[in-house]
Write a structure and sequence with these properties.
binds ribose-5-phosphate; alpha/beta; 300 residues; 6-stranded parallel beta sheet; Rossmann fold
Length: 300
């Protein structure tokens, strides 16, 4: 049984030190001292000095870039703790590889299935994540996984900081529509969904024109991930063509790689708001309450 108040330890991995400490504090656990080293040849070494046995341990480790290093750190820590007899719950605020949830082109490895398998092999008994990319990605897990939503927390941030006035909330593609709809209900605005096509070979994004008029309106583009910024910058350019006054980008996971900020600024995006599932300068919204609230509901 996972009883977060009775459970003793929490390990905050290097990708989620701050968020891990917050969750540790809110669950009244003891922080497991750990050391994560990278050797000059790129190998990873993990040391956890305290012995744990027969108890529930939470590991908080996100898997934003460097993705594979953060994953290996998680596998090593989970394996070590489970070998000692701990029942490991992995809190993976941003779960990498979730976008590779099917074979889009012939021969492609369904990476999230491999990640799920490796987590299980490392002794992870349960995964808690935030705004996983798709339900299909979750279907690859043969053990419990739950995705909590950061959308209510993002919406509260927008309201409290009065970032927009009677906005149009924009889902840049079909996958973003559910999250955008919830966001629009919470901030009180109208929602529109655009239609996106990504070239599966080059990664280039094209967003089809939309009939909606945005004359003088604020627009918030809501997505789960901003990675290279291709999706949001394409959407923002279209929204300005349709008369938008201000365009703001809102996402759960601000990966912001490969010149994403420059792309977004060049497309006129005024603000970029993300959460601390990824430690970054865009992480204005804290997801620790969302995660802890879910942990408190687990009873098995
Ligand atoms: C894909 O469907 C996701 O929901 C995001 O739209 C995508 O990952 C964003 O990537 P990028 O910023 O590189 O366009």
């Amino acid at each position: 049984m996972l009883d977060i108040l009775a459970g003793k330890y929490l390990l905050a991995g290097p990708a989620s030190e701050e968020l891990g400490r917050k969750i540790c504090h809110k669950t009244g656990r003891e922080l497991l001292e750990s050391e994560f080293k990278v050797f000059p040849d790129g190998e990873t070494k993990v040391t956890i000095r305290r012995k744990v046995s027969d108890c529930d341990v939470l590991i908080v480790q996100s898997t934003y870039p460097p993705v594979d290093r953060h994953l290996i750190q998680l596998f090593f820590a989970a394996h070590h703790l489970s070998q000692e007899g701990a029942r490991v719950t992995a809190i993976i605020p941003y779960l990498a590889y979730s976008r590779q949830d099917k074979e889009f082109l012939p021969g492609e490895v369904v990476s999230i299935g491999v990640v799920a398998h490796l987590l299980r092999s490392a002794g992870v008994r349960r995964v808690v994540t935030v705004d996983i990319h798709s339900a299909e990605a979750m279907a690859h897990f043969s053990f419990p996984i739950f995705s909590v939503s950061a959308i209510p927390y993002l919406a509260t941030y927008f309201k409290e900081n009065k970032l927009v006035e009677n906005p149009i909330v924009v889902a840049p593609d079909f996958g973003a529509s559910k999250r955008s709809e919830v966001f629009s209900r919470l901030v009180g605005g109208q929602m529109v969904q655009l239609s996106k096509k990504r070239d599966r070979v080059t990664g280039e994004v094209k967003i089809a024109s939309s009939k909606v008029s945005l004359e003088g309106r604020d627009a918030v583009i809501v997505d789960d991930i901003i990675s290279t910024g291709g999706t949001v910058s394409e959407a923002a350019s279209l929204l300005y063509k349709k008369g938008a006054r201000n365009v703001i980008a809102c996402c759960t996971h601000p990966l912001m790689v490969d010149g994403a900020e420059e792309k977004l600024r060049a497309a006129g995006v005024k603000n970029i708001v993300g959460t601390n599932t990824v430690a970054s300068k865009y992480s204005f919204v804290d997801v620790s309450d969302a995660i802890v609230s879910h942990l408190k509901t687990i009873d098995e």
